[in-house]
Amino acid sequence: MLPLPSALIPVLLCAVTVWRLPSAFRPPVSPASRALWATLAAMTVGLGARSPEVARLMAEVSGIPDVALLVKPVLGLVSAVYLLDYVHAVHGCLGRVVPASRIRQALSLLALVAVLLLVFKRDGIDAHDGDPAVRIYLAVYYLFLAGSTALGTQVFWSNRRTVPSGLLRTGVWLLATGSAIGFFHTVRRVVIVLWYGDTPVDPVTGLPAAMTDFLFEPLPPAAIVLMAAGFSVPPLWMALRYVRDQSAMWRLYPLWSDLVGAVPHVVFGTPRGRVPELFAYGDRTLDLTHRAFEIRDAALALRDEVPASAGAAGAVLTTGDDPARTEARWLRAALYHRAHGRPPAGGMPPEPCHPGGFTPREEVAWLLEVAAAYRGRGGRAAGPRA
């Protein structure tokens, strides 16, 4: 792997692993979230073992010269297993065979560790490079990775259109692309291992020569980066949605506060102040929807109390006027009538005829325009609250 990706990718994976840690263990625990986190954790530890300091420490503790090189395939298998678990958890496939497969996986890993301790205890791995057993082991290892990445590619690609368009669908595209690149790389490695052994031999020194291929060498870091980016999209999407909803709650507060102050019976639950709302934790979509309903219910309650709109002499509406500004004017006038028992000077403006949005999100978008007009020209309703 190239030097710069070798240094940056473990840091990126570590950041993503730590970022997704709460979602893996926060009740109620989701099997898909936990399997996804385990996939990232195994990839992070496996790539972290490549650093010289970590490899030296592992060799001193275990007594095996190249133990870091041996740990990488084991953690690669663990990562592939949990990637399959993630796919199964998301799509509900093969759930009945997971316990039996867990037993086979545990026995396989124990056998692998025993072979590594017995065979490579005194010799470095280079001493066995090209041996038939090593070539078979590496071929099986890469075939297993190829199978998991192929299944991941098929699942992500086939479900890309079932995900809502936008950031989430982009994440699925990233996962499908990363899995496809990983599949191509592992199949290529199988061909190399079966044809040459793990690496070709240098004709001068007789030792395994490092394989340098500037065309294919960027494939592993590219696959890892794309997969990490794809796995990061759901929490990033939730964070962006939280910021968007909090911003909407903040901008709706002046209009909402005046309306529920005049018609308090429309409030869901116990209202909070504008600043305490900023520190509310969790999904704010339902709270934002409730706020939109409260504003609309308060407007309907005021409509039942104020007199009908005035005629042409009292109308404030002008040709081509903005509907949001029209509704804001009517709300100000209705609040004034509620507080003083009479219409404002000039009479009540025409009632707004905007039907509202077809979905809660459309209704929120419309009320944000009304709230902006309400905060603008004409100010907030005058007089004390009833």
TrEMBL record:
Keywords: Membrane, Transmembrane, Transmembrane helix. The keyword Transmembrane applies. The chain crosses the membrane at residues 67-91, 103-120, 140-159, 171-196, 222-243. The keyword Transmembrane applies. Residues 242-375 form the DUF6545 domain. NCBIfam families: MAB_1171c_fam. This is DUF6545 domain-containing protein. It comes from Kitasatospora putterlickiae.
